[in-house]
Design brief:
The protein has 721 residues and is an alpha+beta fold. A hairpin with a 3-residue loop joins strand 6 and strand 7. Helix content is 45%, strand content 19%. The strands form 6 sheets. Strands 3, 17, 18, 19 and 20 form a 5-stranded antiparallel β-sheet that branches. It is built from 25 helices and 21 strands.
């Protein structure tokens, strides 16, 4: 009974425990249960909407588009993270705009998306096509022709799920999505900006404050050596007051790290360079002594001799250009180094005047084969005789296009003309066509057909040459690599803090790169690219200031690195002690500008002229500089707005040193004159708009939307490399 009483007493608690246990059983285990109530497995979300799958899909689509536009099979690490940034920024903006448009009663239905897509495709046949889609079509057209490319795009859904067409389909979906995003952006920002209203009365008041003046002007740079002795003091009280007055500046939107990286480039030693040079020169001597180019290649295992003809423009190495085309055929190319990364040597062995491409028309006489053409009606011998007969007919004056219907192997065409380029074509075929007279024919044997080509035209003949070039990369030896890695390991084991990393690196003569405000999804630190591994390490769980990494191998083992975390800035408001140094530097910079301005004003008060002061501080006076109060900064000689405000508060015919944020301006003004209002106050309203939301209105609006949204970005946990 006592046990039953205890159960009754704690009945509600037991029911809750049993309920959670049952739920855990259903979903698998308590680890999975915990995930239901946390964001542990959420990569990205906006206002509670989880976006893992959508982000991955859009990243894949954007990657496919990037590959197609830049003719790449794979992407560099830096490119991958550029696409990550593009995907995330576009996804965040689109999601926030969707939510805002929904509040305004405007949602993009499937019908609207289809209509926008149809309009995008139709634009391809206008003089103002969608630029991204036009680029994609151009890339496709390089392979299949313009009309076929347009047909593929118009029927793109036919390629969904087709093996081998995934990149094409995904690239198109990326273009389509960007087009819809642009439409949403245009609609929302137009409405948002239209909601910002400035009355004529307000603009009229602004017009009355607008003035213009011709001034003499000199700009003093506080960081010039002449001001090195101007050293301001900043008190703790001033720094705390500045922190309290500018707290919004220390509200960090995402986690940041300051990372020091000691880099150990894996480069050849002096001994390596000597060994490589000796090896190349010995190989070159064997090349010179060889009975023929082919026998040398066979003996050295270098494959077939390149028989391709090249123009001077085909040669991308400057030194080779002159060695190949400005010396007699048969000349040897003695060993030389190119940019300290490779040795070259070789020989020029042929020269000929040749066209870059040949225009042909063709007929196809197919024959039966068990694999490619099992339904053929001719034997190979019959096809050969028929092809030779057709060749003679065409050479005798028969119109090749009138013969087409019966000689296209079942295809439909009224014109088979096309240009065959020298490169990217069958060398033996091209050589025959080059040496065939215009109007003449050549019969080429393909795998299941004989093709009768008639040469119609040729591009201009230019000198082309044949040559053999052998190379040897200048790379460090295994012994050198081992020594460099050993040095990196020594540094990693010695340093226990960021400062010790710097000291140890300096002692070894090792360069240290300093990354400031590195983000979790960055792939670059200072000038060091492709260092995703370091960034992932620095943002790892439980990482602390002064943690030092193990040795990391970067850039395909061309660099070793050891990193240390100098500072951690977590998302949110930064503490005073964490930003104290930054505030001190900021205040000192501001005070230095003010002190220089005060010194200049003291000299003006004593009778010094603008020219005297400008000469003293290594500056020049510009005469007759037009300034207008409401003009854009670039129209006012890039004078800072804070300085413009002070200049237009000066008296007529006066001189003054004005302190901006970054510079000191020596100004002498003459009489101010009123500036007439612009028609309908367009200029004044534009100035008001810039004052309120800045020139980049969309950026300000988006920043506001982001600030009020709940955005979770944990992509670095999912994309460690």
């Amino acid at each position: 009974m006592a046990a039953i009483g205890a159960i009754r007493k704690h009945g509600v608690l037991l029911m809750i425990i049993i309920g959670f246990a049952l739920l855990a059983f259903i979903v698998g285990d308590f680890t999975n249960l915990t995930a239901l109530f946390s964001d542990k497995y959420t990569m990205a979300s906006i206002n509670g909407e989880k976006l893992n799958d959508q982000y991955n899909r859009e990243f894949e689509e954007n990657s496919a588009l990037w590959k197609m536009l830049y003719d790449k099979q794979t992407l560099e690490e830096t490119e991958n993270y550029q696409i990550h940034n593009l995907t995330w920024n576009n996804l965040v903006e689109t999601k926030l705009l969707d939510q805002q448009l929904k509040k305004l009663g405007l949602q993009y239905s499937n019908e609207m998306i289809e209509a926008a897509t149809d309009e995008m495709i139709a634009s391809l046949r206008t003089n103002r096509p969608n630029q991204l889609l036009a680029q994609l079509v151009t890339k496709i057209a390089d392979q299949v022709g313009v009309e076929n490319a347009l047909s593929i795009i118009s029927n793109i859904e036919d390629y969904r799920g087709v093996e081998g067409a995934a990149d094409l389909y995904n690239a198109y979906k990326a273009v389509q999505r960007f087009n819809i995003s642009d439409a949403k952006r245009m609609h929302y920002y137009a409405m948002a900006q239209g909601a910002l209203y400035f009355s004529d009365k307000m603009a009229e008041q602004m017009s009355k404050t607008n003035k213009s003046v011709m001034a003499s002007l000199a700009i003093l740079n506080p960081y010039a050596p002449v001001f090195n002795d101007v050293v301001p003091d900043v008190s703790e009280k001033e720094m705390k007051q500045w922190y309290n007055d500018h707290k919004s500046a220390f509200d960090v939107a995402e986690d940041l790290r300051d990372i020091d990286v000691a880099v150990f480039p894996v480069t050849p030693s002096a001994e390596d360079l000597k060994t490589i040079e000796d090896s190349v020169r010995a190989e070159y001597q064997r090349f010179v002594d060889a009975p023929s180019l082919l026998e040398f290649n066979i003996a050295e295992g270098k494959g077939l001799v390149d028989s391709t003809y090249y123009t001077a423009e085909d040669i991308t190495v400057d030194e080779l250009d002159s060695l190949i085309f400005k010396r007699p055929v048969g000349s040897m190319i003695e060993p030389f180094t190119y940019q300290d990364i490779v040795w070259y040597y070789g020989k020029v062995y042929g020269s000929e005047m040749r066209p870059d491409s040949v225009l042909v028309a063709y007929l196809v006489v197919d024959y039966k084969t068990s694999a490619q053409n099992p339904n053929g009606t001719r034997t190979k011998k019959q096809a050969r005789l028929e092809a030779d007969s057709l060749s003679n007919l065409v050479k005798s004056g028969a119109n090749i296009f009138q013969l087409l219907p019966n000689y296209l192997a079942g295809r439909q065409a009224s014109d088979t003309t096309f240009w065959i380029p020298e490169h990217n074509s069958i060398p033996s075929l091209y050589n025959e066509l080059v040496h065939t007279n215009i109007g003449g024919t050549y019969v080429y044997q393909a795998s299941s057909a004989f093709v009768v080509y008639q040469v119609l035209s040729k591009t201009t003949f230019v000198e082309k040459r044949q040559f053999v070039i052998h190379s040897k990369e200048i790379v460090p030896s295994d012994q050198t690599i081992k020594a460099i890695k050993s040095s990196a390991n020594t540094l990693a084991s010695t340093a226990t803090s960021a400062d010790e990393l710097i000291d140890a690196a300096n002692a070894q003569g090792v360069q240290v790169l300093k990354g400031t405000n590195v983000k979790a999804m960055d792939a670059t630190i200072s000038k060091l690219n492709n260092c995703r591994e370091i960034v992932s390490w620095a943002f790892g769980k439980d990482m602390k200031v002064d943690n030092v990494s193990d040795v990391m191998s970067l850039s395909n083992n061309k660099l070793y690195a050891v990193a240390a975390i100098r500072n951690i800035r977590e998302k949110g408001m930064q503490k005073f002690d964490d930003v104290k140094t930054d505030i001190e530097n900021q205040l000192k910079a501001e005070k230095k500008v003010e002190m220089i301005a005060q010194n200049a004003n003291d000299e003006l008060a004593k009778g010094a002229s603008l020219q005297d002061i400008a000469s003293k501080y290594s500056s020049n006076v510009m005469d007759s500089v037009p300034l207008t109060y409401l003009a854009e900064t670039y129209m006012n000689r890039n004078i800072e707005d804070i300085a413009i405000a002070q200049i237009f508060g000066m008296q007529d015919n006066s001189s003054k040193a004005v302190a901006g944020k970054n510079y000191v301006y020596l100004v002498q003004v003459n009489n101010f004159s009123e500036t007439p209002a612009s028609p309908n106050y367009v200029g004044e309203k534009s100035a008001l708009r810039n004052i309120c939301v800045g020139r980049r209105n969309e950026t300000v609006i988006l920043q506001g939307l982001k600030k009020n949204a709940k955005i979770l970005d944990q992509r670095n946990m999912f994309f460690l490399r």
